[in-house]
Amino acid sequence: MRFNRMIQAVDVYADGMPGRVITGGVGNVPGETMLDKARYLEQHRDDLRKLMLREPRGYPAACCNVLLPSNNPAADYGYVIMEHVEYPAMSGSNTICVASVLIETGMVEVTEPVTTFTLEAPAGLIEIRATVDHGKATSITFRNVPAFAAHLGVPVEIPSVGTVAVDIAWGGMFYAIADAIQFGVELVPEAGADLARFGEMLTLATREQYPVHHPSDPSLAGVTISQLSGPPLSPQNHRRNAVTMSTGSSSWDRPSSFTGSLDRSPCGTGTCARMAVMHARGELAIGAEFRHESVLGTVFTGRLVDTVRLGDVTAVVPEITGHAWITGFANYVVDPTDPYPTGFTVGDIWGG
Hints:
By secondary structure, the chain is an alpha+beta fold. It has 2 domains: 166 residues, Diaminopimelate Epimerase, Chain A, domain 1 (Roll); 173 residues, Diaminopimelate Epimerase, Chain A, domain 1, CATH 3.10.310. The chain is built from 6 helices and 17 strands. The chain has a 17-stranded mixed sheet that branches. β15 and β16 form a beta hairpin.
């Protein structure tokens, strides 16, 4: 039997969120930086994203990473992050997945109890510090690119909901952040469908009403993801959140299109964006710990380690600590007779 394609990958998840890591079968991807490589994949080889994230090999809440060599001498590896509607510049849970796979498969030099190395994400260099016990990465801490608040408490008009107060912040992606109480929904798994619907509406409305761009690279522009926030269920934690990732093209003309998928983890870039907002409001000091719950109750621990300037913007340098577990190793193939060589979606779980 001959297959058109064979892709080697490690299945892994970080505190609830799947982040498959492709380790082979992709070949050369042109580009000087990981951002260049991400854009090349998006423009010329987007079939890879569809193949790995759509059914039957993927599902709405899955993410995938392409492990690639980096041209940056400071980086040990590079990686491109793929989600259902975009190639994010950065993702915390995916970074934790990539780092764990590199350690536990021996692809980087491992020292115990602490292993350090550097990755290149499309957003820039990401420093990794991992605790390792008998070859297992028991925790991953990554130092993210600088995060900043773009708008605080601005009014966003959402059809059928009304006007809500929204913070807009960069944590590696541009987030719309709003208190869940404004939507009358609880941050619990049982409310997942409502959370995802309101989150998708929040993303689209904020993107339309408040254009934003990164001060260092204007091509990094627009709100593409949202976070509903509320008080924690555990007294050990500081906030609880539900981040909604888009899984299709939403439209006010098609109410059924407002269905995304929830990040099952506490969301790394979302936590960074949230900490940037809190620091801008004087609610989180440099060096203070911030424990962020997911809808599952898993926790990322964040900390701001410094402030920097990005052009005329004051930004903070965040660190996030989380955990990941490998669930399998696979060779993904495409049968030449497969009628859906780049996968498919169905409206029951993917939205209208």
